[in-house]
Write a structure and sequence with these properties.
The chain is of the alpha/beta class. It has helices at residues 9-17, 32-41, 77-90, 112-124, 133-143, and strands at residues 2-3, 23-27, 48-52, 65-69, 96-101, 147-152, 158-163. Strand 2, helix 2 and strand 3 form a beta-alpha-beta unit. The radius of gyration is 16 Å and the shape is globular. Bound molecules: S-adenosylmethionine (SAM).
Length: 164
């Protein structure tokens, strides 16, 4: 379940690479036709479906793995913690949440892209900000995830995996 999926690029790439995987994209109802047109263009409509909802008003749908890509940085700390808490509720024991963003390095001295992205969020949103992998691991632990790990992906992107 990709939370805040937009057109569904991430579930599409995962489904193309792993033919046994089925999944859903969760986003605001208005996004449905954009998601469905994109997923249809790859012939993946039997394995990927759209789940409409508002992550402030609705619980997150249950899934073995949840993903939040470029979601948490839009929101203030209280909202970030609320979203992590909703993700924890939606997971079974042993299930995982994967958060990926342009994360800042832990001592906030190297990763200019992440720091500038954070400045951008501070300008463009009421309370959004980017963060380090250690920040995200700490928030996940505080929320109740039992294990966390941070890993660099490619370019400016890193992920944090939290397991229930
Ligand atoms: C910055 S985009 C991230 C898209 C994609 N995950 C990525 O990594 O490129 C944020 C997404 O969150 C969705 N979104 C914003 N507020 C939402 C809400 N309250 N409930 C559900 N989705 C929301 C937006 O519609 C948008 O698709």
């Amino acid at each position: 379940m990709d939370v805040g999926t937009a057109q569904g690029t991430l579930p599409t790439q995962i489904a193309l690479a792993h033919p046994h995987v089925t999944g859903k994209g969760f986003d605001l109802p208005i996004v449905r036709p954009i998601f469905e047109e994109y997923v249809h263009s790859f012939g993946l409509q039997e394995r990927l479906s759209f789940h409409p909802g508002n992550f402030f008003d609705d619980p997150l749908p249950e899934a073995e793995v949840l993903v939040m890509g470029h979601i948490l940085h839009d929101w203030n700390l209280e909202e970030k913690l609320m979203l992590l808490s909703k993700a924890l509720k939606a997971l079974p024991k042993g299930g995982s949440l994967i958060v990926y963003e342009s994360m800042i390095d832990d001592d906030r001295s190297q990763h200019a892209f992440g720091l500038l992205a954070s400045l951008n969020m501070l300008i463009e949103t009421p309370g959004g900000f980017d963060y380090t992998g250690a920040d995200c691991c700490g928030w996940m632990k505080k929320t109740g995830f039992s294990e966390t790990r941070a890993e660099h992906l490619v370019g400016p992107a890193s992920m944090v995996v939290g397991t229930k």
